[in-house]
Specification:
With 476 residues, this protein is α+β, with helices and mostly antiparallel strands. Helix content is 37%, strand content 23%. The strands form three sheets. It has a five-stranded antiparallel sheet with strand order 2-1-5-4-3. The chain has a five-stranded antiparallel sheet with strand order 7-6-10-9-8. Strand 6 (175-179) and strand 7 (185-188) form a beta hairpin. Helix 15 crosses helix 16 (458-468). The N and C termini lie far apart (106 Å).
Length: 476
């Protein structure tokens, strides 16, 4: 029984007239050219002939299927589809495409093919044509990976936005987001709304100049222009429309191809409310002449007062935030390590002598007092006072306290009277003792830290302590 397939959207009107004169060779060429693979299946389901139109499919072993049952060339889950497709074709059911998988060369590799079967002749033969779906499968896998990547990016974006919203609305510092082009307020946090004395919804959409007094508009525009030109602006004093004085600073950022300004209103420059102890303390720290810095446990700067910004010659406080304190404070790999060790052990340190290096690496002598605030995320506070202008009283050398050592004048008088190696030995002893005494003084008699500072092993330091009579060689 021969069945004329009617799967085309517009089938041939006269297939006998259109195709009746075709020879078998021409039909074979048409079938081979119109499909990737064509199979001739006998009544027992065995492949008796085939045509493969892609050399890549030949390299995958499709040419070895002749005289094999078709069900043995597909994966196990596709065998039922093979039997169903052949049964429908021989029964004259309307043909339909079925997707099947063939095992590949590698482990777990499969070759997807889409098949269409038509019964021919009275002996149960079936012509099966197939289209390789490998390229389609690759595109589908790429689409799936892209979709998964987009979903992950979207999830990260939502999480970042949630964190931003939480941080923005819970921050105690008044902050506004202002459109750089129109100067209109796009967002405002609750702290800024309270400072302005308006509801958040009423502030959003207003021109920022309308929130200030008339005499402060020029200063705010100047700060915005500076932020647009150099990403950040120095703090300027402005007066709000309600009369309160604040320090305004702005930072430029881009969002959705639009420039925005992050405007911070710090009321620390105005009068301090005695009823607010925290505000009073912050006001004192902002105006005190000593530099003050707060860091996390890794010594990354969290905040600093204007005195510290002036001491290290930075442009603004924002430039210091996020940097490591050892960029500015202490001799490299010595002072801060000793200071932090003392903070972790005792919780505080006083009058620690060290140096501060400004942005140009110019050193200045300072004294540091520090405190550790324990907690889930411990923080350190450092008070830094410059001692460069203090009058230094030169210590008077006590010759009797240094047995076996001579003064510099005595050593120079020995020239010509004693061999140079003896003079050098006595000079070396004098210098070693002075260095050890200075290191012990700087480390509050912590011998382990003094040995580290001098570049000596502990055993070597203890030996020299016994040699110069500076104490026993036992560890503290």
């Amino acid at each position: 029984m021969t069945v004329t397939p009617q799967s085309a959207a517009i089938p041939f009107k006269r297939p006998g007239w259109a195709l009746g004169g075709l020879t078998l060779d021409v039909v074979a060429q048409l079938v081979a050219a119109s499909t990737d693979i064509a199979l001739i299946i006998d009544k027992d389901g065995v492949i008796r002939d085939l045509s493969v139109g892609d050399i890549d499919l030949v390299s995958r072993g499709l040419g070895d299927w002749i005289h094999q049952p078709w069900t043995e060339t597909v994966t196990e889950e596709s065998r039922a589809k093979v039997e169903s497709l052949l049964k429908d074709a021989r029964a004259g059911a309307p043909p339909r495409w079925r997707e099947m998988n063939h095992p590949g060369r590698g482990d777990g590799e499969t070759l997807p093919v889409r098949y269409y079967a038509v019964a021919v002749g009275e002996d149960g033969r079936v012509i099966v044509i197939g289209r390789d779906l490998q390229s389609t499968a690759v595109l589908q896998q790429r689409l799936l990976r892209v979709q998964q990547s987009l979903e992950r990016d979207y999830l990260r974006l939502r999480q970042a936005e949630s964190r931003y919203r939480l941080l923005f609305h819970s921050a105690r510092e008044p902050v506004l987001i202002v459109d750089a082009a129109t100067r209109r307020v796009r967002e405002v946090n609750p702290a800024a709304a309270r400072l302005l004395g308006q509801a958040e919804g009423d502030v959003e959409g207003q021109v920022f100049a309308g929130l200030l007094s008339k005499d402060s508009g020029a200063a705010a525009q100047s700060a915005f222009a500076a932020a647009t030109a150099s990403s950040t602006s120095p703090a300027v004093r402005v007066r709000l429309s309600g009369g309160a004085e604040v320090e305004l600073s702005a930072s430029l950022f881009r969002q959705d191809r639009a420039a925005c300004l992050l405007v911070r209103l710090a009321p620390d420059g105005g009068p301090v409310d005695p009823a607010d102890p925290a505000g009073a303390l912050m006001g004192v720290l902002q105006n005190i002449s000593d530099a003050f810095v707060v860091t996390d446990a890794d010594l990354n700067i969290l905040t600093a007062n204007p005195a510290f910004v002036d001491l290290v010659q930075l442009v603004s406080r924002e430039e210091a935030v996020g940097q490591s304190l050892d960029r500015y404070l202490g001799r490299p790999q010595i002072d801060l390590r000793i200071l932090v060790a003392q903070l972790k052990e005792h919780g505080s340190a006083r009058n620690f002598a060290t140096i501060v290096r400004n942005r140009f690496d110019e050193p200045e002598e300072v004294e540091v007092s520090a405190v550790a605030v324990p907690g889930e995320a411990p923080i350190f506070g450092f008070s830094i006072r410059s001692v460069a202008r203090r009058v230094v009283v030169a210590p008077v050398a006590d010759a009797e306290a240094l047995p076996g050592a001579r003064s510099v004048e005595q050593l120079t008088q020995l020239i010509g009277r004693a061999p140079m190696k003896d003079i050098v030995r006595e000079s070396t002893d004098l210098i070693e003792r002075l260095c050890i005494e200075a290191a012990l003084k700087l480390t509050s008699n912590n011998r382990a830290a003094a040995a580290d500072m001098l570049g000596l092993s502990r055993q070597s330091l203890y030996s020299k302590l016994n040699r110069f009579g500076l104490g026993s060689g036992d560890d503290d």
